[in-house]
Amino acid sequence: MNDYIIEMLNITKEFPGIIANDNVSLQLKNGEIHALLGENGAGKSTLMSVLFGLYQAEKGEIRMHGKPIKVNNPNDANAFGIGMVHQHFKLVEVFSVLENIILGIEPTKNGLLEKKEARKKVMALSEKYGLKINPDAMIEDVSVGMQQRVEILKMLYRNNEILIFDEPTAVLTPQEIKELLSIMKDLAKEGKSILFITHKLNEIMDVADRCTVLRKGQLIGTVDVKETTKEELSKMMVGRNISFDVDKKQSSPGEIVLSIKNMTVASKTHKNNAVKNVTFDVRAGEIVCLAGIDGNGQTEFVHGLTGLEKIESGSIHLCGKDISNASIRNRSVSGMSHIPEDRHKHGLVLEYTLAENLVLQRYWQNDFHNRGFIKFDQVKNYAERLIEQFDIRSGEGAETIVRSMSGGNQQKAIIAREIDKEHQLLVAVQPTRGLDVGAIEYIHKQLIERRDSGKGVLLISLELDEVLNVSDRILVIYEGEIVGELNPQETSPQELGLYMAGAKRDINRGNQHGA
Questions:
Q1: Domain with CATH 3.40.50.300 in the chain
Q2: What is the pLDDT of residues 183-230, one digit of tens each?
């Protein structure tokens, strides 16, 4: 009898200028968690999109229980019991959480939508798997972490037996990651088969039974996780040894670059303010990290700081200049670079070319235009320099439409643009989200180089390792307030976790109260 529930045999998928999958085979056993590992642009998401019917392979076949099947579209995939949580969520922003979960298989009676039973089933699933949601919240108003939960519930609601998770932990907090990995183990015990795309080697070692590694579209091999190490997996993935330690010297903070006084930002989802009376400074030559569990005001804080939202009260000074009411363009020109949390919504114009996206912050400068006309040759030359410097991989170089690039390479494009432009303050929101270990190593070096060249860096991160290893000073945000200021060299992950969970407060933080 065939042990495999799904087999993808000799799959080849091509796009203009690139072979995304080159004769790749993958076999999923019944009830196993099978990890798919590879660098950004290695072809992992493409392979899973072929299985889910979003793409059609030029060569190869898919078998289920040993018999060939044809998956022409996602509806076919669902009919075969295959569900997928995408790296970039497929949600309707103007619909509620509940409406998104039931979309496509809405229960009706006499032609009318019956939400009551659907709500009961969704809330039961939410309760069972610890995926706390507000069914009535609009998707456009909820955090990225909440959107992730909605995607998972969509899959569970459809009773899918084969579950594809594409970078599911990229946007979650350490606590949420732990819960999700536990959920995945429970699902596997229930007999569901899971394909798990991730860059995080610790997660593979924790939950996966086997791991298939891709590099530049080709199959490197499939290994039993119990018989391998993180170091061996990383070498298979990138073809060289990776350093997991962040190498940096002691910081030498200088002049104040960013000064925030009593900043308050309203919430879109409830009556209370999302950010409450926050005060702190960032100096040249230091990396200050704003750490917290997702949904504690970080998103609203960054939106207020960068001009995406108006602040209710307080002030923001950048290099001594009051920018509290300045436009986004003025903040940028005044010396602020911003790597946003949501790369699709605030970081890129997906239908533009890579070159056009790389020059978005500078196209009006004399280098790139003449009497109102863009100098496309200069734009292309500039883009090609950044593509090479930051190892941005794309099928057609500077002319590639950004929508067609992998998530990790889209992220690299934003980082290249924001680091290369003239700035005094770099606001980096989850800059390594969705990046492989080689790219993370590179980005951390870039942040430290910014610091060592006398720039101020404000890092907003959900990754405990990143918070502790990269930052010089940690500010913990809980329910919109700064509840602690910690020295990363003198604190532990456990202590940091207590502050992030609101179980501990620093009574010396100005307007804060002891717990």
A1: 4-238, 256-335+423-500
A2: 889 889 988 999 999 878 889 999 999 999 999 899 999 999 999 998
Which ranges of 245-375 does DSSP label H, i.e. alpha helix?
Answer: 298-306, 328-333, 354-358
CA distance 425 to 419: 10
Q: Which of 171, 153, 159 is nearest to 100 (CA)?
A: 153
Tally the residues of the chain. 515
* pTM for the predicted model, two decimal places: 0.70
Q: How confident is the model at residue 173 (pLDDT cuts 50, 70, 90)?
A: low
The model's pLDDT over 480-501, given as tens digits with 9 standing for 90+, comes to 999 999 999 999 888 888 888 8
- Report d(CA 471, CA 496) in Å as an integer: 13
- 4-238 folds as Rossmann fold (3.40.50)
Number of alpha carbons in the 13 Å side-chain half-sphere of residue 461: 26
Confidence of residue 172 (pLDDT cuts 50, 70, 90): low
Mean pLDDT confidence for 57-63 = 95
SS3 call for 20: strand
> Which among 344, 323, 324 is positioned nearest to 333, based on CA atoms?
323
Please report the DSSP string for 50-86 in residue order.
Answer: HHTTSS--SEEEEEETTEEE---SHHHHHHTTEEEE-
Residue from 472, 491, 489, 486 nearest 252 by CA: 472
Residue 219 CB-density burial (10 A; 0-12 exposed, 13-18 middle, 19+ buried): buried
CATH topology classification for 256-335+423-500: Rossmann fold (3.40.50)
Nearby residues of 424 by Cβ (< 8 Å), 6 or more positions away: 257, 284, 318, 319, 335, 336, 455, 456
Close Cβ partners of 449 (under 8 Å, ≥ 6 residues apart): none
Task: Please state, in angstroms and rounded to a whole number, the distance separating the CA atoms of residues 88 and 407.
Answer: 8
pLDDT tens profile 107-143: 788 877 778 888 999 999 888 887 888 999 999 888 7
The rounded distance, in Å, linking the Cα atoms of 393 and 417 is 15
Report CA 204 to chain centroid distance, whole Å.
18
User: What gap in Å lies between CA 82 and CA 47, rounded to an integer?
Assistant: 14
